[in-house]
Sequence to fold (176 residues):
Amino acid sequence: MLFRSANAANYEHITYEGYGPNGTAIIVEALTDNRNRTATNVKNAFTKGKGNVGTPGCVSFMFDQKGQIIIDKEELEDECGDMDADELMMTALDAGAEDFNEEEDSFEILTAPDDFSAVREALEKAGIPMVEAQVAMVPQTYVELTDENDVKNLQRTLDLLDEDDDVTDVWTNWDE
Fold:
């Protein structure tokens, strides 16, 4: 997909897939006006973290594209003090959410990509504060890293990708 900005530079959306330490799956999305620069930067990030870039489709089959909404429990209590987990879940499900998960300090709401906007709007209308709301690549399974060097290498890869201005999103199946 090409985009043209006001200064006439061509931008394209590129997805890279690869593996980090211990088989950790990583998907990188970028928007760039220089495919070669971005490819080199992404490859370097993988290499410096003891991983490697793979072929298109090598890890994406391990992820599902979903609308993902994260709600902080503390913020929910501050903004909507009387709302409990069951009420939040019913609000989300009534709006079209597929799944609702309670984590230690947050709630995760998953939707089909097509239903994401309707669910987000229903939550906004109900005054529910969202920490994060996006269409994301959600892992089907997670990889736990127990070796300290593996964690350090994966973190190095993620930090380098985060510092790259062309990289817009990074998804991994690392169970942090």
Notes: The longest strand covers residues 10-19. The chain is about 30% helix and 30% strand. The longest helix spans residues 148-163.
